[in-house]
Amino acid sequence: MGCGKSNAFPYGELIWTHRKGGSTIFKFFAHRQNPLLWIYSSQVKLLDKMEFSVMSFLSNALDWVRVAFDVPFARAVVFGVHIGGHLVVEALLVIVILFLLLQKSYKLPQRPLSETEIDELCEDWVPDSLIPPLTEGIKYEPPILDSAAGPHAIINGKDVVNFASANYLGLIGHEKLHESCTAALEKYGLGSCGPRGFYGTIDVHLDCEERIAKFLGTPDSILYSYGISTMFSAIPAFCKKGDIIVADEGVHWGIQNGLYLSKSTIVYFKHNDMESLENALEKITRENKRATKLRRYIVVEAIYQNSGQIAPLNMIVKLKENYRFRVLLDESNSFGVLGDSGRGLSEHYGVPVEKIDIITAAMGYALATDGGFCTGSVRVVDHQRLSSSGYVFSASLPPYLASAAITAIDVLEENPHLVTKLKQNIALLVEGLSDVPGLSVASNPQSPIVFLRLKHTTYSFKNDLQLLEDIANLMLKEDSVFVVASKRIVKESCSFGAVRLHLTGYFLIVIAFCPAAGSSSVLQLLP
Amino acid sequence: MVTIPYLTAITTYFSYGIYFSLGQLRDLFRKIIDWRKPDDLQGYAPICLGLEDFYVRRLYLRIQDCFGRPIAGAPDAWFDVVERYTTDNFKTIKRTSKTTRCLNLGSYNYLGFAASDEYCTPRVIDSLKRFSASTCSARAAGGTTRLHTELEESVAKFVGKPAAIVFGMGYVTNSAILPVLIGKGGLIISDSLNHNSIVNGARGSGATIRVFLHNTPSHLEEVLREQIAEGQPRTHRPWKKIIVVVEGIYSMEGDICKLPEIIAVCKKYKAFAYLDEAHSIGAVGKTGRGVCELLGVDTADVDIMMGTFTKSFGSCGGYIAGSKELIQYLKYTCPTHLYATAVSPPCAQQIISAIKVILGEDGSSRGAQKVARIRENSNFFRSELQKMGFEVLGDYDSPVMPIMLYNPAKIPAFSRECLKQNVAVVTVAFPATPLLLARARICISASHTKEDLIKGLEVISDIGDLVGIKYFQAEPKKRQQEEGRVKLN
């Protein structure tokens, strides 16, 4: 039995005691200055001899450690702090901890697919077919006209009264239009053979743009080559990612496509409901107080193509000025129809046309040509000449259609009685149709597109559509009156950000036009 | 592919750098001068912020007179360009009533149907009288006339497919068809240099889009393998379907798509092929039937063939040709068919008559002559330009030939000098082409005679010397073996 003590060193003292039975107890007493290191004693069974060699080995090792701690720098004084040897060990430990923290976490090794695996996957993959299987309803063929789509048309050899073409002012078949078209065809040929930037700008295009701007009273206008592409090119030109657009729920497909392509934030408000619009504007202004650089737009149509409602422009303009939004108005169905001289919705409500920022319209309705235009301030129009994709990357409007547009506007300006005649016809038609059994008028009484809805729906869209199509076919066969049931894209998986088909049901569409059909045809409409 | 010489790249970057810094300086001055002026926007956000329209204001407007030149007649081989002047240093341009007669090397008039034609125009005027200028309604709602059905049948027969559907505008055709055919969960693989309408249509469809290197079937195969193996992004579910979109002739490069290899790859990996023949229908091929005929590909192998009528038929509109079921389905679901105004009847009649002329059904051989002439003209013009030392892109047989300009200052120089010598050319710069690769694009027509072409070549050669765009060594006049003759391409 005996005990021994190692030489003192900064951490503490190692004291061992031999006990009876050959065991040795090591005790380490740490100094109070260094609470970091506590080595607890452990009992070890040793043979005496080994015990002695182990002892001497241990005491040698401890001597070495002591020497390390007695290294000169360990006794140095830096900035008045006594660097004891323990600080060196602590520094080493801190370095070790940092090293471990900065190690990347262990990830399972990624094995890329081998060539044979890719081959197998490619062989196994079975694509869907390009189109889903066709059902019976798809094979429907619309009736084919054998003449111009004027008030009277020839279908299957029979003369029918045509209530399906949007020929509001009856300009289809007008001799002045035919004369100007023929002259243009002989002078310019048919196509324009190039986009507007590369020799596709023909002087009739520039004349047409000036004429439209003069007629409407706006500074400038720009022509597009197709009606439906006007809106879906104009919207992405002005609205980019991050901008806010408040649009009506029931806008037509062209506008919806434009809204989707613009990638802006879109907020819909209830169809033609001014309260809902105000709430939406209020909410947006509240949430985006700091956004002065944010461009904000309201998109509405003058006469909605899908429902026949008329947008209350005076209220919209008031709201817009209040909340500082720009208005994009689509006047396709109201140009040449509303207002005393046919100048559109702004004349109808007495709102000065400068208050509307951007007006677009397709010319394939009242003006009896094709194409579209967009008017507004000079800034608005110039911007589109370089950033509107449907203008820059597409061939320009055929010159004969542009000259037809000029002539149509001339005719309209010289004969404002066409507009009053149209209004009388609309009133006559709506009056006659409102007491038709089984169908009720669902559109605004001043709209030239009259939507008739079934009074008692079968609560299934498919059956409703079938019924309406049957009515239309019957009317065509027996009474020689041509109307159409509204068509909708039924493909629900069309991902235009959920194409909002404002489906309140299908309608029978009857379009009023100018040279009077008269009350006789109204009587004919009774099923 | 174009590789730009180092020195030219450095000088081009330098030029753009100067324009950019000058433009910034001017913007700064404008801001300082307008500091005191009240903002007349009244609380509305500006339409274009800061740098969004920097390129337009400071670079494009300086050379505005090279683009959008109005003409005062039909875009035939020779036409009248309206003279314009500016009083405020090109911010606005006004037109005069004077015109200059110029050689037309810029319009898409491949078969010469642009001006009034002896066979087509009388029939077009007849159809105008019979059906009037527009139908004012959509195809599905009373806009289908006898002409439209006849048109679709003749287009299908011409292209070599069972059925076709016709729309009023080529741009809208691409933008509206791709969303109908493919949706979320599908994959569109398109060539890196595809036209803006295809890009728009692909974006509007909601499918995932991947791009493969221009005209490289091996890279297409790589992309296909990788995508099929990986599946949809993040969920790794298998793709619903894959459509590969390529064009027949690329309008900015003039090169012809490597169709047989691409179709082979598509067949191997069960992808659908969509071919956009906007520039190639009517212009290439022995009888003008397009790229499929030129390269010997069976039309049944291409699932969807699309094209436009603006270029070779002198009309307007686009078509899609495919199997009967496909066309039936498209008639039921395509939004343009249901909502947009039908093709104008005189346009339809022009296409029908033009197809008759090309096929020789009008009783003369004008069609075959036109198709042969455009091939001769393009090959002659291209080889002469290459002999003079210009860097001309595009393949043999293609009627589109871009001449590389590179430096931004050469664009207006080339364009204005050519106009002074009564040759009208089209110059294209950023953003239609990459920044460094500005070019002048020549479109040959069947209505150009040999004398027209020779005159054009002389003018271009003179101005090429003046402006300095003969990047390759000109072939010496004696064409026998000479040492040090630079091998072109």
UniProtKB/TrEMBL annotation, chain A:
- Matches recorded under Gene3D superfamilies: Aspartate Aminotransferase, domain 1 (3.90.1150.10), Type I PLP-dependent aspartate aminotransferase-like (Major domain) (3.40.640.10)
- Keyword Transport listed: no
Transmembrane feature ranges:
76-102, 505-526
Query: Which pathway does it operate in?
Result: Lipid metabolism; sphingolipid metabolism; Sphingolipid metabolism
Task: List the InterPro entries.
Answer: Aminotransferase_I/II_large, AON_synthase_class-II, PyrdxlP-dep_Trfase, PyrdxlP-dep_Trfase_major, PyrdxlP-dep_Trfase_small
Query: Which subcellular locations apply to this protein?
Result: Endoplasmic reticulum membrane
| One Pfam family in the UniProt entry | Aminotran_1_2
Instruction: One GO cellular component term, please give it.
Output: endoplasmic reticulum membrane
* Membrane-topology descriptor: Single-pass membrane protein
- Has keyword Membrane? yes
Q: Can you supply a Gene Ontology BP term from the record?
A: sphingosine biosynthetic process
Q: What is this protein called?
A: serine C-palmitoyltransferase
Q: Which UniProt keywords apply?
A: Acyltransferase, Lipid metabolism, Membrane, Pyridoxal phosphate, Sphingolipid metabolism, Transferase, Transmembrane, Transmembrane helix
Record domain Aminotransferase class I/classII large: where? 158-485
Q: Which organism is it from?
A: Protea cynaroides
Q: Which residues form a coiled coil?
A: none
- Family designation: Belongs to the class-II pyridoxal-phosphate-dependent aminotransferase family.
A GO MF annotation of the entry reads: serine C-palmitoyltransferase activity
Q: Which cofactor does it need?
A: pyridoxal 5'-phosphate
Write down the EC number. Answer: 2.3.1.50
UniProtKB/TrEMBL annotation, chain B:
Into which family does the record put it? Answer: Belongs to the class-II pyridoxal-phosphate-dependent aminotransferase family.
Q: What are the protein's UniProt keywords?
A: Lipid metabolism, Pyridoxal phosphate, Sphingolipid metabolism, Transferase
Organism encoding this protein: Protea cynaroides
Which GO-annotated molecular functions does the record name?
pyridoxal phosphate binding; serine C-palmitoyltransferase activity
First-level EC class? transferase
Question: Would I find Lipid metabolism among this entry's keywords?
Answer: yes
So, what pathway does this thing act in?
Sphingolipid metabolism; Lipid metabolism; sphingolipid metabolism
This chain's protein is named serine C-palmitoyltransferase
Question: Could you state one GO cellular component term attached to this entry?
Answer: serine palmitoyltransferase complex
PROSITE patterns per UniProt: AA_TRANSFER_CLASS_2
Membrane topology term: Single-pass membrane protein
This protein's cofactor list reads: pyridoxal 5'-phosphate
The record's Pfam families line, in alphabetical order, gives: Aminotran_1_2
- Localization (cell): Endoplasmic reticulum membrane
